[in-house]
Amino acid sequence: MKAIYSFVVLGCFMSTLYSMQELKAEQDTFKNSLQNKTLQELAIEFWKGKDLDSVYKRKLADTYIFKAKKQINNERIADGYQMFLSIYKKQPKISLLYADSIIEITKKLRNNHYPSTGYMIKGNILSTIEQHYEALEAYLVAKEYAERNNNKRQLIGLKHNIALLKTILGKEKEALLVYKENYNYLMKQENSVLRRSQIYVATLYKLSDSYNRLKHYDSAYFYLKKGIKASLSNTYKHHYPNLLFAYGINSYYREEYQSAIDSLDKALILSEEDVNDVNVRKGYLYLGKTYLQLKEERKALQYLKKVDEITNESNYRLEIREAFTLLLDHYKKNKDQRNQLEIMKKLLRYENVSNIKYSRLNHSIVKKYDIPQLIKDKDHLISEIRNDNKVLTYKSIAFSVFLIIIVSSLYIYFSKKRKNNYKIELNRELEKVKVLENKERKSVKSSKNFSTKLKKEILEKLNDFEDNKGYLKNDLTLNKVSKNLKTNSTYLSKVINMEKKKNFANYINDLRIGYCLQQIEQNKNFKHYSIKSMAKEVGFNNLQSFVTAFSKQKGCNPAEFMKKYGN
Asked: What would the pLDDT profile of 22-57 be if each residue is shown by its tens digit?
């Protein structure tokens, strides 16, 4: 019996040994097949292999770096590190190590896209994990190397990346100018490869995103269509999910709610719901807003709560603030004070941290990028003027002689014509004076009829109206207010114009905005309302009227004001 058992065990062992030898032989064959490929063949297989598993991709990258090191080719070694960056793109700590390795191994290269590319990659990773100040520092170093090597393509990319930081700071108009400048440059290039590049697709994406933010939805839609088409025809579809997020947001504002849901759902799948991606959080927010419009509050809450769950002090952005204000509105409506207080505390903490973080970033962009760039542009302009001065002098003399002849001829012609027109114009002006005199007489007569006593009575009634906060009603007109005050609408309008130095509409709006500011200062709950709720609370029928009146009085819109002074 023991002999039989020993024979079975020996058989199993021999079988396993044979299988292991077969596997080793297979692996050796596989390894040799990769070793026989050139660096270019390995790179093409790695970057164009859409469905390759991570193990095979790692073997390709390992083989690529092994061969590059054997050739002592630092540029190709850095390309190999980029392969590993692709593999570990969702692990920022590891990705940063590879970015630093790229910088270290290429720092002595000259007339090359490295090490600038290494610093750009590092900046992108830092920006992804919300370390924007450190990202800016990396971009500025990359810019120095790109300028030294006169690498136009990299300079466009760096301008683009710094504009992204401006977008984060809420400087959408400044950022849009950069994206437009880059777009115009790319469109002028005869080299069609540039118009199929990642920077071209990224530019189309950010143009559409900026127009969305600035509420120019038709312009956003135009660039979105171009961007999606360009992305689908591109080998690397890195920006396709971002374009879908922007398309979903654009569809929401164009009130195409089903299209918004379809685009946002697809974008979330393609982005693998990566919580480090701000677009994922925005996607949840706009799915919540879309379902609110469709009166599906339960679904809306699921997405708004997702934003709350994946947001923390380090990844909070102003653009997802509305998720928290909508949750506050919901909890307030349902008298859920515990959750209401919890959300309030979170929002206050996030706002405080982000204000400090973004204030530092803003100061650094202005000091280290905007001002030096302005000085550089000024110096370039002065240089151009000096070079053109000689040619300009001769042209100026010739032009001056020509101008004198033209001006003399025109003077003779128009002086004759002026004399003929003078009498006609004088008669017209006399007629206007007569009309104005008649109006003045009527006005004086009307003012005499308007007694001081009546003016005093109306002013007292207006004071009562203000004390009782009658201006908070949302359907006020001059006729309604005059009827409530038991006076004539003409007299009421005159008193407001004469004593308050403004028309009726501005008078009511200023009172409402004044009350709103008082509530922000004194009422802790009020400052956590959404902007729409604030508008309704102080008597405005629509959000746009509230924002316009607020901006007119304070010089900024309510959202900007709350960001600066709400705490």
From this structure: 445 445 555 567 888 898 888 888 887 667 777 888
**pLDDT score recorded for residue 456:** 86
| Cα(520)–Cα(512) distance, integer angstroms | 12
All structural domains of the chain with their residue ranges: 454-565
DSSP 463-502: HHHHHTTGGG-TT--HHHHHHHTTS-HHHHHHHHHHHSSS
**In this model, does residue 18 exceed pLDDT 70?**
no
Q: Which helix (H) or strand (E) holds 65?
A: helix 54-70
Query: Residues near 155 by Cβ (< 8 Å), separated by ≥ 6?
Result: 143, 146, 147
CA dist 365 and 387 (Å) reads: 32
Helices (H), 254-336: 257-270, 278-293, 297-310, 321-333
Dmax (CA) of the chain: 137
Neighbours of 151 (CB within 10 A): 19
- The Cα 101–Cα 115 span in angstroms is 10
Element (H, E) at 415: helix 371-449
| CATH topology assigned to domain 454-565 | Arc Repressor Mutant, subunit A (1.10.10)
- Residue 190 DSSP class: S
Instruction: Answer yes or no: are the C-beta atoms of 262 and 244 closer than 8 Å.
Output: no
The answer to whether 243 and 231 have CB atoms below 8 angstroms apart is: yes
Q: What is the DSSP annotation of 120-166?
A: HHHHHHHHHTT-HHHHHHHHHHHHHHHHHTT-HHHHHHHHHHHHHHH
pLDDT at 430: 47
Q: Residue with structure tokens 């509409």? A: 505
10: left (phi over 0), alpha (psi -120 to 50) or beta: alpha
pTM here is 0.56
pLDDT for the residue numbered 200 = 87
Buried b / exposed e over 382-409, threshold 16 CB at 10 Å, is eeeeeeeeeeeeeeeeeeeeeeeeeeee
Mean pLDDT confidence for 344-372: 76
**Cis, bond preceding 241 (omega within 30 deg of 0):** no
Cα–Cα dist 34/518, whole Å: 72
Percent of the chain with pLDDT over 90: 25
- Name the pLDDT band for 225 (thresholds 50, 70, 90): very high
Please say whether the beta carbons of 160 and 179 come within 8 A.
yes
| DSSP-derived 3-state class of residue 238 | coil
CA distance 247 to 342: 33
Which residues 6+ apart lie within 8 Å of 316 measured at CB? 350, 351, 353, 354
Question: Which pLDDT value is given to residue 25?
Answer: 47
What residues contact 519, with CB distance under 8 A and at least 6 apart?
526, 527, 537, 538
Residue 212: name the closest of 202, 223, 220 by CA.
220
